[in-house]
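for the recovery benchmark. tokens below, seq after
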């Protein structure tokens, strides 16, 4: 069903191009809108998949690494 809808939508967009500059303008507006909406959805998915406090563990590991490196340098 989605394939048929995609084929019909592609045909409609192809017909819009025939209308000249107005059709091309509408086509570009549709494409930009789809891209913008896709970025919003990807951002929402990213917020759910990657928790906000995950950077805390990374910072702690980095600080621990720096401490260990400094201790090794002072020993030598």
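predicted aa per position
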């Amino acid at each position: 069903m989605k394939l048929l809808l995609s084929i019909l939508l592609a045909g409609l967009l192809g017909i819009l191009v025939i209308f000249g500059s107005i059709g091309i303008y509408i086509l570009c507006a549709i494409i930009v809108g789809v891209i913008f909406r896709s970025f919003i959805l990807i951002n929402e998915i990213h917020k759910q998949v990657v928790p906000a406090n995950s950077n805390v563990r990374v910072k702690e590991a980095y600080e621990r690494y720096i401490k260990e490196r400094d201790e090794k340098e002072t020993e030598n």
